[in-house]
Amino acid sequence: MRPVVHDDKPAWISGLLILAVLILAIAGCWAVFAPDPDELILKGAPSTPSTSSSGWTVTPKPAAPPVTLATLPAEVAQSADERVTTSTMYCLSGTTASGTPVRDGVVGVSMGEFYRLKGSRWEVLTGPHAGRIFTVEDKGPLADFDMWTASCREAITYGRRTIRIRQVEEG
User: Fold this and answer.
1) Pair 59, 111 in one domain
2) Does residue 20 belong to any structural domain of this protein?
3) Residue 115 to residue 171: CA distance in whole angstroms
4) Is pLDDT at 68 greater than 80 in this prediction?
5) Residue 123: CB partners within 8 Å, gap ≥ 6?
6) How far apart are CA 104 and CA 116, in angstroms?
7) Region 17-35: what's the mean pLDDT?
8) Using the 8-state DSSP alphabet, how is residue 81 labeled?
């Protein structure tokens, strides 16, 4: 004789468990897709009519325009060939967008600037690489002035810095 299994839980408990799982899933999605609080601007006052329960109107902060070598502030530069830019370092192996192997002295620039600047040579005027000359041979989606290094530790330690550069030769 087989034992008879009875479900002792009422149906509403199963429904409650399913509802709890759905709420947790929605909360998880909100945590992933919610706007970053640092990127929000609070407008209005509590007395201002609003759809939010707190009475504040929340508007996303406008995105800053991308900074490229062409749009950098010329007033900081000493001559027309000088620029102030954000620099980073990368340590990938392989070939550059120009088809040459990555090596010391190679720099990548933004995709929009690459074809205009390809082959040009730039001297770094400030920062730990001051006095060095880099040749534009690579590109990247976010690269302003992305110098190649063989050491990934050096690339991580370098981080993101603002430097001054000067074009010494056109491409």
Assistant:
1) no
2) no
3) 9
4) no
5) 131, 132, 133, 165, 166, 168
6) 22
7) 60
8) T
Q: Parallel, antiparallel, or unpaired for β 57-60 and 82-90?
A: unpaired
Identify the three-state secondary structure at position 5: coil
Collapsing DSSP to helix, strand or coil, 146 comes out as strand
In this structure, are residues 169 and 123 in contact, taking their beta carbons and an 8 Å threshold?
Answer: no
Same domain, yes or no: 56 and 73: no
- C-alpha 148/C-alpha 131 separation (Å) is 16
Domain with 158, as residue range(s), is: 69-169
Please tell me the number of Cα atoms within 13 Å of 160 on its side-chain side.
5
Q: What is the pLDDT of residues 128-160, one digit of tens each?
A: 999 999 999 998 877 789 999 999 999 999 999
Share of the chain above pLDDT 90, in %: 39
152, 108 contact by CB (below 8 A): no
Sign of the C-alpha dihedral, residues 135, 137, 138, 144? positive
The two three-digit tokens of residue 164, written as one number = 């001054």
- Which pTM was predicted? 0.54
Q: What is the largest CA-CA distance in the chain?
A: 97
Backbone angles phi, psi at 139, to 5 degrees: -140, 160
